[in-house]
Amino acid sequence: MKFLAAILLLIVAVAMADQDEDSWNFYKFQFGRKHSPKDEAGRRRNFIARQRRIEKHNREHAEWQMGHNKFSDMSDDEKLALLGANPVIRRERLVSAEASLPVLDRALPASIDYRTDKCMQPIKNQGQCGSCWSFATVVPLEFNTCKKTGTAVALSEQMMVDCDTGNGGCNGGMYDRAWQFIQGKGGVMKSSAYAYTSGSSGLKGTTCKFDSTAIGAKVSSFGWTMPYPNQTVSMTYLQSDGPLPSAIKVLDSLYNYASGVYSDPACIVADENDVAHAVVIVGYGTTTATTTVPATPYWIVRNSWGTGWGLSGYFLIKRGVNMCNIESWTAYVRVV
Ligand SMILES: *[C@@H]1O[C@H](CO)[C@@H](O)[C@H](O)[C@H]1NC(C)=O
């Protein structure tokens, strides 16, 4: 009997190892991975750990799902390089000369979704550079300038990475400071004249190539949505002033977000300064209740990790509970 049980266990173990090998091989095929023999074992270990985590999460949670993506075989250090909201800079909370505030008691629509607006540029990819802040900086400038002129415009993240010495390039920064920098420069260049090159390692700090003849947008004023955290205030600004950059705490689970409304009790924290990644709120709504999950209010958030991540580059996160501090860092910017 004992012997039979041992054999059975062995068969199960072999079958699981086989399954792991199949999953790993399929992953490498799907994501075009060709690791050197030196890297292979470590990458495989990262992947298998992720695989277990994803299976466990999806078994235990119905509100949101995890799945494999380009981050599945990365180490923790590599994942940290995908962030970049800088903790020293963000405490300053700059506000430019104040423009009129939106009326806060206006009737808000049940939902807003700017993702498909013709003024929203395609999702971009910061790559292995902590430049999320620069991507968050340009999204509302692209959107609001297009609303004003009627013409879509893509703006340069690289300009801030290379030229904005008040921020830290690939080592992080903050969008309020970047808007102040852009004001000082007289505008931000079009990306057609200053393309993003910092995504692959080795191209981090290039020299500043500012050219005022290629400016595509100008900042008139900017500020934090106040009081914060306050979802009604953020929703109102979203409607009156377009996409709102914000900063969030990033838990390891977010890297493999695949669908649903992201939430994690560990991401509701008392310290509002506990944030590490800049993103952009581009909408809100409420899910319809299902038999397993109640109706859930959410924000629609734009990330800068490429279209292969999350919902074609976007994610939903629970609204109204300051999840990951997202309601503490919303800021608006107006264009000339
Ligand atoms: C949000 O801000 C509005 C406007 O200042 C205020 O009336 C409301 O009480 C605030 N809500 C919370 C939950 O603080």
Automatic annotation (TrEMBL):
GO terms for molecular function: cysteine-type peptidase activity. Residues 24-79 form the Cathepsin propeptide inhibitor domain. Residues 108-334 form the Peptidase C1A papain C-terminal domain. Residues 1-17 form the signal peptide. GO terms for biological process: proteolysis. The keyword Disulfide bond applies. Coiled coil: none annotated. InterPro entries: Papain-like_cys_pep_sf (IPR038765), Pept_asp_AS (IPR025661), Pept_cys_AS (IPR000169), Pept_his_AS (IPR025660), Peptidase_C1A (IPR013128), Peptidase_C1A_C (IPR000668), Peptidase_C1A_papain-like (IPR039417), Prot_inhib_I29 (IPR013201). PROSITE patterns: THIOL_PROTEASE_ASN (PS00640), THIOL_PROTEASE_CYS (PS00139), THIOL_PROTEASE_HIS (PS00639). It comes from the Eukaryota. CDD domains: Peptidase_C1A. Keywords: Disulfide bond, Hydrolase, Protease, Signal, Thiol protease, Zymogen. Belongs to the peptidase C1 family. This is Peptidase C1A papain C-terminal domain-containing protein. It comes from Daphnia galeata. The lineage of its organism: Eukaryota, Metazoa, Ecdysozoa, Arthropoda, Crustacea.
